[in-house]
Automatic annotation (TrEMBL):
Predominant place of localization: membrane
SUPFAM superfamilies: SNF-like
Alphabetic keyword roster: Membrane, Transmembrane, Transmembrane helix, Transport
Membrane-spanning parts: 12-33, 45-65, 96-122, 142-168, 180-200, 224-248, 260-286, 306-339, 351-373, 388-408, 429-451
Pfam family, one: SNF
Protein name stated in the entry: Sodium-dependent transporter
Membrane topology: Multi-pass membrane protein
Amino acid sequence: MAGPAPAAHENWSSRLAFMFAAIGSAVGLGNIWKFPYEAGEGGGGAFVLIYLAFVFGIGVPVMIAELSLGRRGKMSPPNAVRSVAKQEGRSNLWSIAGWSGVIGAFLVLSFYSVIAGLTLSYMVDSFSGSIDTLDASNSADYFGSITGNFPLLLLWHAIFMGLTIAVVARGIHGGLEKAVTWLMPALFAILILLVSYAMAVGDAASTFKFLFQPDFSKVTLETVIQALGQAFFSLSLALGSIMAYGAYVPKDVSLPKSAFIIAGADTAVAILAGLAIFPIVFHYGLEPGAGPGLVFITLPVAFAQMPGGILVGGAFFLLLAIAALTSAISLLEPIVAWLEEHRGINRVKSAIGGGIAIFILGIGSVLSFNYWADVTFLRGTVLDNLDFLTNNIIMPLGGLLVAVFVGWRMKRISIRDELAPKSEFGFALWLFMLRYVCPLALGLIFMGFAFRGLL
Ligand code: PHE
């Protein structure tokens, strides 16, 4: 094989642009939709503590490794890893570490877009006042009527993919950077407003107790594994995004420092999302551990009861939609970068072609809510299977390969060159986590799930 044509990708125009884009990738449905309900089910503060340990002990070291691979390889994940492997005199097969990311991103975006479409639908219905009448008796039925409506869900999925394609097609400077420079400040502003509102009118005391007082009696092995998976997903690891974004980072930017800022901001948003949601949930006497329906079924009941709920609810779903969009563009980017390199297909065509293929695969997830809700195999519906495959197999495997490659297969001198470590202790600690702790933890989830998947 002739090898990929070196495609000249753009670089981020500033460190801030890169930070906004990477934080935009990390902050998504995972923080605002998933984290609060997982914390709710996993014992509140105990889950939060375990989660924090995984974010900084395992997520950050892997993020530094991914960013380094991206920047050293300067191409889309499969070609970046292949190029670094070549420079290091290692096998081409390591490019699997990049392939798993691109394939994972393709699969994840197909269903991520469906859930994101749902948030758009709720946003419009909130602002228009049409869900201002919901109460505990009919909120779940309303959710069912939306998800049961195949054409409606399909339309929102198409609109969301259309938005994602429109941003990515415009390139790094004209598309991604422009979008995140507007959207990230908007996201933070809405979040701060919602937290202030929730704290002022809601039950702050119960929220603090719930989120920060650890009750380890609720913690099971399942909770621990879930927290690790959530940390990985929330930091956008092992799905190509962070590695692809790393390829555009100028050489003078410190990758370790960037990784800490991204992880810190991502975690702060997850906790702030909890501080925006739970005071309201407790104030209205609703159930905090209500699973995936917490945001779509429980919260609308509170919005309907509160004064100004139309605006607060609308703003909340707008927040979710923005967070989802800046994540979705980072899932499409590695795929588009790869298509561009592969046969020199231009960016616009790559974004449209890749986006349409993802849209089509996503129809399986749309159907999982309605016509195919009873069509189950292996782990459940099409959506359940895609979620299982990506979260429990592709992500831990991809993370493991990255950790082993960078930790064990790259020359020390190359890593030093890339990271320019300021502290010897920090460097040694990072390498230790990457070489021993990360592979062990990721290997365990992978094996645990692979076995359970067979049972
Ligand atoms: N981190 C995003 C979230 O929390 C999801 C995501 C995963 C985005 C992997 C890109 C890559 O929702």
